[in-house]
Write a sequence for this structure.
């Protein structure tokens, strides 16, 4: 068998010695190796870059009607299908090309409006600034009834329903930039425990933490609403109590309390 020659990148043939190859021919065999290392010098066809979807492409998509609310308060809004499809919820609803109207009878109009504003602009009013939220001339500086807190809480729960995680995070961050009263916080806590699941610690844990740290003072400012809240939502009362007990346990551990984990009170057993 003739010695095969290996030619690399167009250089002179290099004698590699005897190489036994099955099914080889009697003549010299030349193997060309290209820059990619593939035999035969073949190069893969360059992949074409993915086509960028422009904002104009979104605006060219069909319009979809959104029927918000029910009864006399029912409102009809429209939005572009391609933008709505960014939401997994709407993408599933719009999978059928014949579906041109979607009913959202249980959703809040203002929350849906904020969602649509976010789809088209990447934000919703009031925008986040380096110093907090931009001023809202129609709202007082201090939220005394919970309306400002509930605005973002409703966007949060809507974003959860629509599968919009970034909008969910944005709305939650805005909640913590609002100055509010105790009554406003109770209204917000009631909404949170009524419209979120027990596993949603992202929004529930800060609520329990807030009342766990301040309930001994703020409960006197709620005109009985704190007590009503605890009776209406036992999970809220349990979460607040757990926060208080956990905080006390940590304080006891820092003090080196020998009775941590044990009952400090000794009850006489019944005879």
């Amino acid at each position: 068998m003739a010695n095969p020659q290996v030619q690399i990148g167009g250089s002179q043939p290099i004698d590699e010695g005897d190489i036994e190859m099955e099914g080889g021919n009697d003549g010299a065999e030349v193997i060309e190796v290209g820059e990619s290392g593939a035999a035969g010098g073949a190069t893969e066809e360059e992949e074409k870059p993915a086509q960028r979807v422009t904002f104009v492409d979104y605006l060219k998509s069909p319009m979809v009607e959104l029927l918000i609310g029910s009864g006399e308060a029912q409102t009809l809004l429209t939005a572009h299908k391609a933008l709505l499809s960014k939401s997994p919820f709407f993408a599933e609803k719009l999978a059928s090309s014949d579906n041109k109207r979607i009913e959202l009878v249980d959703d809040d109009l203002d929350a849906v409006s904020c969602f649509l504003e976010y789809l088209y602009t990447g934000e919703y009013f009031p925008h986040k600034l380096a110093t907090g939220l931009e001023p809202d001339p129609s709202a007082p500086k201090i939220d005394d009834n919970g309306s400002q807190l509930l605005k973002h809480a409703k966007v949060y729960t809507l974003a959860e329903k629509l599968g919009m995680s970034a909008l969910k995070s944005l709305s939650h961050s805005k909640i913590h930039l609002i100055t509010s009263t105790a009554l406003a916080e109770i209204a917000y806590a009631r909404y949170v425990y009524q419209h979120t699941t027990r596993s949603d610690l992202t929004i529930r844990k800060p609520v329990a933490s807030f009342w766990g740290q301040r309930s001994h003072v703020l409960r006197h400012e709620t005109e009985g609403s704190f007590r009503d809240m605890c009776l209406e939502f036992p999970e809220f009362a349990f979460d607040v109590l757990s926060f208080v007990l956990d905080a006390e346990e940590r304080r006891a551990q820092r003090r080196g309390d020998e009775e941590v984990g044990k009952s400090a009170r000794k009850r006489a057993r019944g005879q």
About this structure: Confidence is low (pLDDT under 50) at residues 2-39. The radius of gyration is 33 Å. Residues 140 and 148 are 9 Å apart (CA to CA). The beta strands are 5-8, 14-15, 30-33, 63-68, 75-80, 101-104, 128-129, 132-133.
